[in-house]
Amino acid sequence: MPSTAELFTHLSGSSPQLGIIGLGQMAQALLRPLLEQDLLKREQVVACVANHASAQNLQQKYQIEVGLDPAPCLNTPFLLLAIKPQQLELFLQHPAHSIELSTPQPLLISVLAGVKLERLQRAFPNHSVVRAVPNTPALVQEGLIGLSYGAEVSDIQRSQVSALFKPLGQVFELPESQLDAFLALAASGPAFAALVVEGLADGGVAAGLPRQLALDLAAKMLKGSAVLIEKQGLHPAQLKDMVSSPGGTTIAGLRELERCGLRSALMEAVVKAAERSRQLG
Ligand SMILES: NC(=O)c1ccc[n+]([C@@H]2O[C@H](COP(=O)([O-])OP(=O)(O)OC[C@H]3O[C@@H](n4cnc5c(N)ncnc54)[C@H](OP(=O)(O)O)[C@@H]3O)[C@@H](O)[C@H]2O)c1
User: Fold this and answer.
1) In this model, does residue 5 exceed pLDDT 90?
2) CB distance 182 to ligand 1 below 6 Å
3) 189-280 belongs to which homologous superfamily?
C-alpha cells in the first residue's frame, strides 16, 4: 500500500490533485492533518464552497485555492464530496457538471451520510465512487473511518483511498449494507460519549468535586477504561465485575444505571441514528 505522501507525489506535479466540494467541519478535519503533516502540498488542493465570505475566510486560513466554481475541483484525480446530503440535489444542478474531464477515471470520495453508492454513481457517471464515513476524533488522529467501494474502483484506487485516510485514524473496509450502522456507532457515537462524559461530570459536581476537575476525570476515566478493555481484550462485563465488590459503591451505582435503563437508551440511540442515516439517503 502506498504511504499518503507517496500517493500525492506519484501523481503529476503541481496541478491540483485533491478537489474538495464543501470545505465545512468534516472536510477541514480531514484536510488539516494532511497539510500539517506535510502529506499534501497546499498547491495540490483546490476547494469550493457555497458563499463568497466563507471562500475568502478558508482561503486565508489554509492558504489553498477556495472558490465558488466546482469545475476546478471536478477535474482532479481525487474528489472529496463533503457537502450536506440535503445540498446534493442543488449542487448537481450546477452547469460545471457538463464539463469534460481531463483526468482519466477520477475517484470520488463521498462523506455524505446515507447517500448510497448507486446514487453517487448516477450523479457522477465518469468517476469511480467510494463512500467514506469518518468520525470527529479524526481531528486528533484518533478517527475511525468506514469505507465502501463502488464496483468500478480498482485495487490501486482502494489502497490510495485507504492511504488518504490513514493519517486520520483506523480505516475499516465494509460492505455498504453495514455503513449506516457504522455511522450510527462510530460517527454519531462521539456525541453519545460526550453526553456520558457530561452526565458523569455533573454527578462528580453533585458529589462535591470542582467542575473542571470533574470534567477532566470523567473524560480520562472513559478513555482509560476503553484502553483497558481494548488492550487486555476484556469483555465489558469482565471489567464491570472486576470493579464491583459485594455490597460496595460500584454495584450501588450500577443498580441505579440499570433502573434508569442506560443500556437500553444507548442501544436505541444507535438504532435511531442508523435509521436516520438510511432516511437521509
Ligand atoms: N460533522 C461530522 O461529524 C460528520 C461526520 C460524518 C460525516 N459527515 C458528513 O460530512 C458532510 C459535511 O458535514 P459538515 O458537518 O462538514 O457540514 P458543514 O460544516 O455545514 O459544511 C458544508 C460545506 O458545504 C459547502 N456547500 C454547501 N452547498 C454547497 C454547494 N452547492 N457547492 C459547494 N459547496 C457547498 C458549505 O459552504 P458554505 O460554508 O459557504 O455554506 C460548507 O463548506 C455531511 O454530508 C455529513 O453527513 C459529517
Assistant:
1) no
2) no
3) ProC C-terminal domain-like (1.10.3730.10)
